[in-house]
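Sanity check

After download, print the first record. It should look like this:
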Amino acid sequence: MQPRPGAAGARPAAPQGQGQPAQQQPRRRAPAAAGAAAGAAAGAAAVAIAPPAPASPPPPPTPSLGSDTGRPLPRFAALGSNQVNLRVGPDLRFRIDWTYQRKDLPVQIIEEHQVWRRIRDPEGTEGWVQRPLLTSRRTFLVQGEERALRRRPEEAAEPVARLRPGVIGSLRRCEAGSAWCEARVGDYSGWIKRAEIWGVAPDEVVGD
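Expected structure tokens:
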């Protein structure tokens, strides 16, 4: 079975001047009519009905601690092998729902049970894997469209590589309050925006 995220490569940035192509109906509410008073000469008067209050959005998930490690949940990790079985439950007797063949793919650990970890992958699929098949090494996945790995953490900085969707790289450093992370993809090192990758939380500190 092939891995979900498609593999793609990094390529050097083009010279200056050579751009790289990136790959309700309204509803009507019927007014309610108020009935005319018995024996009254006046006709019925329309009464407006107040619209219902909008539903409140669900609260964000509350961070917790893992029952096995006591470490915060959710947290990011990466697949440590090119053959990782995702099961529907935390035991070998549960059926295999998917097999990942993409070492270093970033995943999010959302629950712990003894030597098992419930994970969520970049596409939102969830299931259980054994702890030894995960690594704490921090990686990221490029999503959405082609992204630039830049020489400095600045929007106007020169790109050192163009990263296609599906590229996996390693995270070296993400500072508190910064929108940028220092990263490496193959032989290329530089900076990329947090919002352009999957594998790091918006306010998370990675590295020293």
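If your output differs, re-run the checksum step. Summary of this record's structure: The first strand starts at residue 10 and ends at 12.
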